[in-house]
Amino acid sequence: MFGGLHSPRPLPEEDALVAVARAFTPRVEAPSPTPVLLDLSGLGRRWPTPEALGRALLAAAAARAIEAQAAVAFSRATALVLAQACPGLTVVPAGKEAEALAPLPLDLLGLQTEWRELFRRWGLRTIGDLARLPPVSLAERLGPDGPRLARLARGEDESLLVPTPLPERFETTLELDWPVDGLEPLAFLLRRVLEPLCAALAARGAKAASLAVELGLVDGSVHARALRAAAPSGEARTWRTLVLLDLEAHPPRDAIARVTTRAVPTPSRTTQFSLLDPAQPSPERLAETLARLHAWTEAGRAGSPQLVDTHHPGVFAVSTFAPPPLPRGRREEATPGPRVALRAFRPPRLAHVVLKNGVPAFVSAPGVRGAVAASAGPWRASGGWWDVAWSREEWDVALRPDGQSEGVFRIFLDRLREEWFVEGEID
Amino acid sequence: MSAVPLPAVTLPSPAERKRALEDLLRTRRLQADAPPLRGEDRRLRPLATGIAGVDALLGGGFPRGALSEIHGPASSGRTGALLGLLAQTTRRGALGALVDPSDRLDPASAAAAGVDLARLLWLRGPRGASEELAPKALADAMAAAATLASSGLFDVVAVDLAGASRERRRLPPATWTRLQRLVESGPTAVVLVADEHVACGPGGALLALEPAAPRWSGPPGPARLLAALAARAHAGRHAPRSVDFTLAAL
Does B64 touch chain A (CB under 8 A)? Predict the structure, then answer.
């Protein structure tokens, strides 16, 4: 026996009708939020008559503030069509399916547009019109689909109910008899919640992209942390280390009475290793290492430097350290060769520069002081030439070794402020 | 209509394919700068800087599993040599890390030296550290260097201590021994960059740099540019040897 449940009004929640159905049976087919189809076999002990069962379905829906209509029948197509067509409860006795469906509009059968258009041209309006057509003539015109459609119109639906699987939630909770205080005892408890969680993920061929940890505290509050590894991981050990390192930096304010972990699954990434390419770092170990450096990463002081598409001097960005995989068939590129580098002062140091014939002759700044032995410049530069044109005059100056400082430094004149700065040391 | 004859395809036999693969592996194993094969002990291969004279002086480069050092005064090419080492490392596909408590790295210089920036982990000191470095910031930097060195993920972990001589002296003396012990069994080369000699492990390379006069592109005048920095490198503790090298600026 099948039951159809449908709500003509918008649902309070998308899965509200499915939840009502699942309260009666786990075998629920719900390709869309409404209508849903239930397999009601075996419920005769609890609800002896189909009418009682139908009323219970409607009462359960009403309890969730859903205005529903239900149908109970011995064919799935009949139950689904009648649930959508008739308000309240409709119960169809065995063998009366064709009779119940006959007056209903043909559109309710959910036919393809091609068939609907064809039947409209034939002058068919109701399901009964289709059911009355001779099956042989239908087969001659429509092929094997003809008799199938005729049987469907008579309520003779032979297809099986395919239960919709429950949405998967990867969550484990551990209620503690005695609250724990401190991270050391928590480490053991975390293993107990994370190992089954990771085993469930592995059984589904998934890894955790992120992990939410909720610690129920003795004072009634919840200490929630969300962790995201550098790469998805299904290793309980890795997640335990990440959680402990995070809690070390953000400890709960009271003893812990409940531990809940919830993973956001992502499909496992299968990597084909290459015999000839260098071994790549393990994502789990990289995530662990970065988590150990959380004081640097959280302050935005750890990452990969990135150049920014601008000519403005000293501008760069720092992004999360996530080394990309090596491209296949990569050929090693030659390095440009040994080059000088700038050791930058951030911010540039304000300097006093003495000019002689328009050329720097003496430089004095915190940590940099001496007479200029040789210089090159000026080179005018500016990031936004369309905004403030050539506002910067750069010089490379070599200071005399007998002075307080020795070495080659890059200095510049900010022409807008008329002030000199030492940008850095050339090394 | 006549059929178009297809060109004959002859596939190599399994024995030929095996021989070709073995040849390929043998070639790569003998090639000094080839990336390591999976499972291969990489400690045998030192990490080159790309400066031919300096690499020859160091016997191929900086050794793995040891604490090494580059020291020298300002404009002696310390940073140029370090960026050369990081460029050679990251271009092979390996990872490099730079612990920079004074926040002195210029990413544009690193990119110009050929460093693959996506494979470089840069740990910067706090804002304003280039002016005055707090002792705690240096202690934190050394702790981070120890974490990176012990992870075994990075081929090079460099610690830039240049310009922080006073703060460095406040570090416990055991810092360097601990760092050496952490990398002994791993594939990582830890390289300190400093103004003067700080520490060098038993198997590490000690590279002392001494600046020479910078080279300019021409006579004094408006069109002149800095052409190169010249320096002399000394290596070897018992039988010191030296070599002159230049770092191009143009």
Answer: no
- Is this complex's ipTM strictly greater than 0.85? no
pTM above 0.90, yes or no: no
What is the token pair recorded at B14? 């399994």
- Within the 159-218 window of chain B, which residues sit less than 8 Å (CB to CB) from chain A? 162-163, 211, 213-214, 216-217
Between CA A210 and CA B64 the distance in angstroms is 35
Helix (H) / strand (E) containing B89: helix B78-91
- Equal fold, A2-153 vs A173-267: no
Least Cα distance to A94 among A155, A21, A162 occurs for A155
- Contact residues on chain B for A339, CB-CB shorter than 8 A: 80, 83-84, 109, 112-113, 247-249
pLDDT confidence band for A326 (50 / 70 / 90): confident
pLDDT at A420: 94
- Quote the CATH superfamily of domain A173-267: DNA polymerase, Y-family, little finger domain (3.30.1490.100)
Task: Give me the pLDDT at residue B156, please.
Answer: 95
Domain ranges of chain A: 2-153, 173-267, 342-426
Q: How far apart are CA A397 and CA B244, in angstroms?
A: 22
- Asked if the Cβ–Cβ distance from A408 to B214 is below 8 Å, we say yes
Q: What is the 3-state secondary structure (H, E, C) of A125-187?
A: CEHHHHHCCCHHHHHHHHCCHHHHHHHHHCCCCCCCCCCCCCCCCEEEEEEEEEEECCHHHHH
**Contact assignment for B128 to A285 by CB distance below 8 Å:** no
**Which residues 136-165 on chain B approach chain A with CB closer than 8 angstroms?**
140, 144, 147-148, 151-153, 162-163
Q: 3.20.20.70, 3.30.70.270, 3.30.390.50, 3.40.50.300: which CATH number matches A2-153? A: 3.30.70.270
Q: How far is CA A132 from CA A77, A157, B237, in A?
A: 17, 16, 105
- pLDDT tens, residue by residue, A378-417: 888 876 767 667 788 899 999 987 767 788 999 999 888 8
Burial-class residue A9 by CB neighbours within 10 Å (0-12, 13-18, 19+). Answer: exposed
Q: Which of the four CATH numbers 3.40.50.300, 3.30.70.920, 3.30.1490.20, 3.20.20.30 does domain B48-208 have?
A: 3.40.50.300
List A residues 290-329 in contact with B (Cβ-Cβ < 8 A).
292-293, 295-296, 299, 301-307, 314, 316, 318, 321-324, 326
Query: Is any Cβ of chain A less than 8 angstroms from the Cβ of B17?
Result: no
Q: Is B229 exposed, middle or buried (0-12, 13-18, 19+ CB in 10 A)?
A: buried
